[in-house]
Structure formats: C-alpha cells, structure tokens
Amino acid sequence: xxxxxxxxxxxxxxxxxxxxxxxxxxxxxxxxxxxxxxxxxxxxxxxxxxxxxxxxxxxxxxxxxxxxxxxxxxxxxxxxxxxxxxxxxxxxxxxxxxxxxxxxxxxxxxxxxxxxxxxxxxxxxxxxxxxxxxxxxxxxxxxxxxxxx
Length: 149
Hints:
34% of the residues lie in helices and 26% in strands. The chain is of the alpha+beta class. The chain has a single domain (3-134), classed as Aminopeptidase (3-Layer(aba) Sandwich). A five-stranded mixed sheet has the order 1-2-3-4-5, with helices on both faces. α1 packs across α2. It is globular and about 40 Å long. The model has no long low-confidence stretch (mean pLDDT 93).
C-alpha cells in the first residue's frame, strides 16, 4: 500500500465531495448537499494563505482528505487552526492515513504561526473520538453552537 498526501487541486473536487458525503452521513448536524460542499471546497482552494485542503492518494484513488483554516484566537493571542474536515474512506481506515493528514495540517498551520488545532466532532461518532483520544487531543468543556444568518 502506497499513500501520498498532497495539496488538493480543482480536479480533485468530485472525489472530495464524495468523501464529504461519507463524513456528513455520520455527522447528524450536517446536510448532504454536493453543490454546497463543492462550493466550500473550491473557496478553500482559492484562499491558500488561510486554508489548506489535503488529499491522501492510495493505489490511484483519493482515499482521504483533511481541511484546515486559520482563525485568530483571542485565547491564544494569535493564529489557531480549525480542522474543518477529516475523513478517510472506510476500506482505508486504520492504516495511519488520518494521522498523516492531521500531521500535515498541523505542519501547515505551524508554518503560519498557529499554536493550536481545534475541531468539532459528532458526539455519537465514537470511532472518531477514540481516534482523537489516541492522538492526544483533549476534550474541552466547550459546546459547539451554530446559528444561520
């Protein structure tokens, strides 16, 4: 098995949208809307200073992806990175791909001055929560909220 992690290009959008459909099918708070997901990914591909979209390729196919976006954290007094998406195709899980993707997002963020990664995960997605626990992520007392405008 040969895995390569690289920055995504516009040509990757169809495969990335498919991976997001896998992720959003797990996460109850998000609706599957391929056009919205494509539009969001395309915007991140354009804004390469504040966002990164990474792809994991394996055996000629896109098998995983991760995205990160810089934010300004008043708690940190500077940049932090929001890991917006991390998903690995079911047949490719438990091979270290998710960890490699997270490591690359962390390296990208650190190179831009970020001192913290943060993310939200579905509380029912026990496999994902165990993955983050194994990688040393700490659960916080914060509750994620959102409001449409």
